[in-house]
Design a protein that fits this description.
By secondary structure, the chain is an all-alpha fold. It has helices spanning 2-9, 19-35, 37-44, 54-71, 75-101.
């Protein structure tokens, strides 16, 4: 619940000035939308995972953001760090959702 609460309160990161950061911003928004399936689980107990392999999507996004961090400068470095942190939090929230929500055999 701590990671869920943090995610709900954390402002969405900004885009940045480069084409790469603008693309990761857009992909981050898409991933964030998929993670909202967690809200239905927390508020109503409905376990319905995202219709895509969200963990793979988040991993690929994290790698792209990391590569952009190698060349980012100035304010874009702060954008890279905030996007990186946000993706890491999405990954944590979604992994915990899958772990808690899946029926145990």
């Amino acid at each position: 619940m701590d990671s869920y609460t943090l995610w709900c309160r954390l402002p969405f990161p900004s885009g940045g000035s480069t084409e790469g950061l603008k693309m990761t911003y857009a992909d981050l928004a898409e991933a964030d939308e998929y993670v909202t399936t967690v809200i239905r689980f927390v508020e109503r107990g409905i376990f319905k995972p995202a219709p895509v392999d969200l963990l793979a999507m988040l991993e690929e996004l994290m790698q792209r953001i990391n590569r952009l961090g190698d060349t980012a400068s100035g304010e874009d470095q702060a954008v890279v760090r905030s996007q990186h942190a946000y993706v890491a939090l999405l990954d944590l929230v979604y992994r915990q959702f899958l772990e808690v929500g899946r029926p145990h055999e």
